[in-house]
Amino acid sequence: MLYLFHGTDTLKVRAKAFQWISAARAKAPDAVYLRIETTDLSRETISNAISAQGLFYTKALVLLDDPFASTESGEVVLEMLPELALSANPIALLAPKLTSARIKKIEPHAEKIFELNVVEKKAARGFNSALVNALNSKDGKVLWKEIVKAERSGDAPELIHGLLHWKARDLMQKGSRNWSAREARALSRSLIELVSESRSGSLSLSLALERFALSL
Prior knowledge:
Layout (H helix, E strand, L loop, with lengths): L1 E6 L2 H18 L4 E6 L5 H8 L9 E6 L5 H9 L1 H6 L4 E6 L3 H7 L5 E4 L13 H8 L3 H13 L4 H18 L6 H19 L5 H10 L2
Parallel strand pairs: 1-4, 1-5, 2-3, 3-4
């Protein structure tokens, strides 16, 4: 039986493999544990591990530790995949950062596959000055483009609306050569009504924001 542990997060892949080993040893305390590292890996050591049995144990638990760190040992493992899969001994193949080509070769022979990848964190977006400047300038076409750009960058419509409404209130307090006090108040009311309309289900907030921009 062959179990594959791979992924781009090397630490998590290793931790998962050894966690699995510990759990397996707890279930079968009489089984002997064999860990074969890259430098010791060969067709002979794998063959011995596959068929390992002794006087005081009937099964072995085998860990092939990062065999693909060496091209030679990696090729040996690929050649012996059918034998590894048919072994009565559980074989854990620990192979961080495995290439997609090798994964495809191993997958048909694996009883189970554990994959742990690095989760990429999106960089936090700063204050969207281009969006509020477009509203301040009263340029509907530019505002529409900035709304679309913000959504494509991952900003939720609620976030965009909140920023626009904040700017509307700012215009009410500070004034602007492009917006009179009366117009700023009307702008604020329009944005509030826009949310109510979207909640009624007549139009999504995303589309409502775009329509609002083009109406300026």
